[in-house]
Amino acid sequence: MRLSLTVFLIFCLAACGSEPVDETKDWSAQRFYEEAKDYMVDHNYEKAIQMLEKLESRYPYGRYAQQAQLEIAYANYKNNEPVAAIAACERFIKLHPNHPNVDYAYYLKGLVNFNEDLGLMGALSGEDLTERDPKAAQDSFDTFKELVTRFPQSRYAEDASLRLRYLVNSLALHEVHVARYYMKRGAYVAAANRAQHAIKTYPQAVAVEEALHIMAQAYHMMGMPDLRDDAWRVLARNFPGSKYLTGEEGRQQAWWKFWQ
Predict the structure, then answer these.
(1) Whole-number Å distance between alpha carbons of 99 and 151
(2) pLDDT tens digit sequence for 63-100
(3) What is the distance between the alpha carbons of residues 208 and 141, in angstroms, rounded to a whole number?
(4) What's the rounded Cα separation, in Å, for the pair 109 and 24?
(5) Whose CA is closest to 107, among 158, 65, 169?
(6) How far apart are CA 19 and CA 36, in angstroms?
(7) Are 122 and 113 in contact (CB under 8 A)?
(8) What is the pLDDT of residues 19-65, one digit of tens each?
(9) Phi and psi (nearest 5°) for 127?
């Protein structure tokens, strides 16, 4: 019995002696934050996130904790962890809807999704857009729209508005590609509906010109001359120099190239 107790005590002492020492146990919130910022400067985002998470865990209240939540979102964004970045933005917005910097949380959330969509658009030549999920573009559009609506004086509102224009065209283009897909397969009702949806939802988009052309073609193939002629009239009125009116569909530079 004594031997067993002795062995047990030795095991416990050895275990205690092997526990790692936490060098940060006496750190202040400011120390954690400064260390995290230094890691950010060095592009060591994983370490920065660790410091910020410890800060928030040990000092859950106050300005440093709130700022840490925003910095965690940014660090995850820079660390190519979009899901974690978006989750952090959404958490901040939920916890601090009236925070002076909540507009930045909206902006960063929209930016993460925007860059996800931009990466996809950069590979258009090798991708079938009828199979592309426009969720990232739609989420980015919704977030930027809320930002410019709720915070029109925000320092991020102007850039968000510019990105909204891109996203309108991105989403409209997706709809037109799907409509074109249906046309090729003889699904004329579906093609007309998809083109009409693009026109109604994104009336200022560049892709509206082709959407009207597809609508006219679809109605023609369905034997609906009145609707066909209406589509042609709208096309001619809004795009008098359209290549679809002359039949000259020369190659043109893609509208999204201005981001590159």
Answers:
(1) 12
(2) 899 999 999 999 999 999 999 999 999 999 999 999 99
(3) 18
(4) 31
(5) 158
(6) 25
(7) no
(8) 567 778 789 999 999 999 999 999 999 999 999 999 999 999 888 99
(9) -125, 140
CB neighbours (10 Å) of residue 196?
A: 18
Query: Would you say 199 and 208 are in contact if contact means Cβ atoms under 8 Å apart?
Result: yes
Distance CA 161, CA 173 (A): 19
Please check whether residue 207 is in contact with residue 173, taking contact to mean a CB–CB distance below 8 angstroms. Answer: yes
pLDDT in tens, 173-195: 999 999 999 999 999 999 999 99
Please report the pLDDT score of residue 26 as a whole number: 80
Cβ pair 24, 54 in contact under 8 A = yes
How far apart are alpha carbons 54 and 114 in whole angstroms?
30
Instruction: Give the pair of three-digit tokens for residue 8.
Output: 């047990």
Distances (CA, A) of 194 to 76, 81, 215, 221, 236: 37, 34, 9, 16, 20
Q: pTM for the whole thing? A: 0.76
Q: Is residue 173 a contact partner of residue 199, using CB atoms and an 8 Å limit?
A: no
Task: Name the strand (E) or helix (H) holding 145.
Answer: helix 135-150
Handedness of CA 233, 237, 241, 242 (dihedral sign): negative
Q: How far apart are CA 79 and CA 38, in angstroms?
A: 15
